[in-house]
Structure formats: C-alpha cells, structure tokens
C-alpha cells in the first residue's frame, strides 16, 4: 500500500518529460518501424501541446481528483455495496477506467463535433512517441474528465484506482506510439489481451476502415469483445489523415483547426462505424 501511494504521488509532468526523453533517445538508437525526416521539428511542434496540457492540468487535474474524491467519500457507486479486497478493486478500477476510455474514444470517432478535436491526434503523419502528446486540450477536458467522473459515479471508483490507472496509462501510451520496430510475437501473445504498438498503428492508418478500429488504450480485449478489433501489417500502414498534408502539421494550425475547419461528413471517417 505504501509502495502504491509512493508510486501515484510521482509528479506526472516530470514523468511525461522523462518518458519523452527516454523514448526519443530509444527511437534514435533502435530499429524504427517508419522512416521519417525532420523529427526534431516534429518533436518541437508536439511539445507545444505538452506545454498547454501541463498548464491546463494545474486546474483540470485538481477538479478531477476532487470530484472523484467527493463521489467516493459520499459513498456514491456500486463498489461501496460490495465487499471487495483492495487488490481486486484496484484491478477492476484500472479495467473499468480503460473501458470507459474505449467508449469515449469510439464516440470521438463518431460524433462530428468530438472528431473535430480528436482528429488533431490522428493528423500526425510522422507517428512517434511525441505523437502521444499531440492531443487538443479541449479533447482532454472532455475525454479524460468525463470518463473519470462517470466511472467514479457508477462504480464508486476511488482516486487511488484513478491514480493507479494514470500511472500505468502514461508510460503505456508512450510505448504504443513509439516508432520502434517490435517483434511480431508480441502481437500474438501479449496482444491477446493488451493493446500493442502495432495494433495502435492500425488505428492511425489513413484508411477509415482501419481508423475506426482498435480504440482501446490498455486492454485490446474491449475491441475484441465489442467487435472493433482489426489488423493490418505494419509495413502496409500509411499514417495520418488525407486532409492533413505537410502544410497542416504545425502546432498553431492544429490548435485552431477544430474552430476554423469543421469536418464535413464526407472528409472524415464518420461514415463508417
Ligand atoms: Zn482515435
Ligand atoms: Zn494514438
């Protein structure tokens, strides 16, 4: 318990910066899946999002933690009426928060207003570890905040469970987006239950048939159960979105694009489910 408390008290901003350095270094040392140029510029553009998200979280993370804490202290949610050992409630918390994010992610692909923000993440034609922080700040408010509150309210999940989920998900999504070439056996073993980098790369494919698949962050089980799992050979994947060419990859353009460039039904992946 003490170890867990120490773990979740790690400053998440420091953790994110440390992971960014580690994975950026790894991508320059190990074999990469994709060959890109201008990676330094790409990193700097994506760091713009990290700065905004860090500033936003000074306020937003406090709101989420206090909200979830309030719900838990007021005995709201199912887990308060079931006698579960701590270890089991923590595993279930991580799984349930992940399942909530699966559904919010799926929603973000199917509701035009939400897609206009979420497609900023998909617009990246040079996917690497820094693509993970290319998230529009408004999406972060909707996505992470709503799913945390709803799951805490329904199941009575605690801030301890949320903290554990966050401390797992941050390095996990770095691994998922990292441009390292991973051996195929990972998909065939680990990938039976968990999302692998190759599975998430399929989600970043330009072909909308594949973009609308593999929504899960940690447990690919959700895609397998709810029928959205798809696979494509990594070497056949073409990253990004057709409507975001090289001229539309700058931080400033991506920040304003949801407000000036509302996606039409025909130029998004909203047609297919
Ligand atoms: Zn997506
Ligand atoms: Zn992604």
Automatic annotation (TrEMBL):
<keyword id="KW-0443">Lipid metabolism</keyword>
<dbReference type="GO" id="GO:0050479">
    <property type="term" value="F:glyceryl-ether monooxygenase activity"/>
</dbReference>
<keyword id="KW-0472">Membrane</keyword>
<feature type="domain" description="Fatty acid hydroxylase">
    <location>
        <begin position="91"/>
        <end position="228"/>
    </location>
</feature>
<feature type="transmembrane region" description="Helical">
    <location>
        <begin position="6"/>
        <end position="26"/>
    </location>
</feature>
<dbReference type="InterPro" id="IPR006694">
    <property type="entry name" value="Fatty_acid_hydroxylase"/>
</dbReference>
<dbReference type="GO" id="GO:0016020">
    <property type="term" value="C:membrane"/>
</dbReference>
<dbReference type="GO" id="GO:0006643">
    <property type="term" value="P:membrane lipid metabolic process"/>
</dbReference>
<dbReference type="Pfam" id="PF04116">
    <property type="entry name" value="FA_hydroxylase"/>
</dbReference>
<protein>
    <submittedName>
        <fullName>Sterol desaturase family protein</fullName>
    </submittedName>
</protein>
<feature type="transmembrane region" description="Helical">
    <location>
        <begin position="47"/>
        <end position="66"/>
    </location>
</feature>
<feature type="transmembrane region" description="Helical">
    <location>
        <begin position="141"/>
        <end position="174"/>
    </location>
</feature>
<keyword id="KW-0812">Transmembrane</keyword>
<dbReference type="GO" id="GO:0008610">
    <property type="term" value="P:lipid biosynthetic process"/>
</dbReference>
<feature type="transmembrane region" description="Helical">
    <location>
        <begin position="78"/>
        <end position="97"/>
    </location>
</feature>
<keyword id="KW-1133">Transmembrane helix</keyword>
<dbReference type="GO" id="GO:0012505">
    <property type="term" value="C:endomembrane system"/>
</dbReference>
<dbReference type="GO" id="GO:0005506">
    <property type="term" value="F:iron ion binding"/>
</dbReference>
<dbReference type="InterPro" id="IPR051689">
    <property type="entry name" value="Sterol_desaturase/TMEM195"/>
</dbReference>
<keyword id="KW-0560">Oxidoreductase</keyword>
């Amino acid at each position: 318990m003490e170890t867990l408390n120490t773990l979740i008290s790690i400053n998440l901003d420091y953790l994110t910066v440390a992971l960014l350095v580690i994975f950026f270094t790894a991508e320059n040392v190990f074999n990469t899946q994709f060959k890109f140029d201008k990676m330094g510029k790409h990193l700097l553009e994506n760091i713009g999002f990290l700065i905004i998200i860090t500033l936003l979280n000074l306020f937003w993370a406090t709101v989420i933690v206090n909200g979830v804490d309030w719900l838990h202290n007021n005995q709201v949610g199912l887990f308060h009426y079931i006698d579960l050992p701590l270890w089991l409630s923590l595993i279930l918390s991580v799984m349930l928060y992940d399942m909530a994010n699966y559904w919010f992610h799926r929603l973000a692909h199917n509701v035009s207003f939400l897609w206009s923000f979420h497609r900023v993440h998909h617009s990246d034609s040079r996917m690497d570890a820094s693509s993970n922080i290319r998230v529009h700040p408004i999406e972060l408010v909707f996505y992470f905040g709503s799913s945390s509150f709803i799951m805490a309210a329904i199941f009575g999940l605690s801030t301890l469970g949320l903290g554990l989920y966050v401390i797992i998900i941050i390095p996990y999504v770095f691994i998922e987006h990292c441009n390292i070439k991973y051996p195929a056996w990972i998909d065939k073993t680990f990938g039976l239950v968990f999302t692998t980098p190759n599975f998430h790369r399929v989600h970043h494919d330009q072909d909308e048939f594949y973009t609308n698949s593999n929504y899960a962050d940690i447990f690919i089980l959700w895609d397998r159960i709810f029928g959205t799992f798809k696979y494509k050979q990594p070497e056949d994947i073409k990253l990004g979105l057709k409507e975001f060419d090289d001229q539309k990859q700058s931080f400033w353009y991506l920040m304003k694009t949801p407000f000036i460039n509302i996606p039409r039904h025909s130029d998004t992946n909203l047609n297919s489910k």
